[in-house]
Amino acid sequence: MYVVIFRATTDQLDNEYSQVAAKMRELALQQFGCLEFHAVCEGTQEVALSYWPDEASILAWKCHAEHQLAQQLGRERWYRDYRVEIAHIGRSYRFDGTQPA
């Protein structure tokens, strides 16, 4: 499994940003194999984590025409800067609250 870490400094976010972001999340999850997607904003800082089964899925997502248009709009209108990191998850575990400590 892989994680894509997207960190950005935002500019003015508007209704169109919210609509585009929701559409991109839905597209990634439904058509490109994204397993999970989480995003948070604090002030002008945005962090999004998306989890993927393989690098091929990430590349297909990056190259998709609608996503490329969204990236262009982001650079032109909504982000001052951003950084993308892709990492392989070598191990993962969780506590779900149903097991005794």
Largest sheet: 4 strands, antiparallel
Structural class: alpha+beta
Strand order of the largest sheet: 2-3-1-4
Mean pLDDT: 93
Radius of gyration: 15 Å
pLDDT under 50 segments (min length 5)? Answer: none
How large is the count of helical segments?
3
**Quaternary:** single chain
Number of beta strands: 4
| Proportion of residues in β-strands | 25-35%
Percentage of helical residues? Answer: 25-40%
- Principal-axis shape: globular
Written description of the protein model:
It is a single chain. The protein is of the alpha+beta class. It has 3 helices and 4 strands; from the N terminus they run βαββααβ. It has helices at 15-31, 55-63, 65-78, and strands at residues 2-10, 36-42, 45-52, 79-88. It has a 4-stranded antiparallel β-sheet. The longest helix is centred in the first third of the chain and has 17 residues, at 15-31. The protein is globular and about 50 Å long. The protein starts with a strand and ends in a 13-residue tail after the last strand.
Sum this structure up briefly.
40% of the residues lie in helices and 34% in strands. The chain is α+β, with helices and mostly antiparallel strands and 101 residues long.
Entry keywords:
about 100 residues; 3 helices; globular
Topology of this structure?
Layout (H helix, E strand, L loop, with lengths): L1 E9 L4 H17 L4 E7 L2 E8 L2 H9 L1 H14 E10 L13
Helix pairs in contact: 1-3
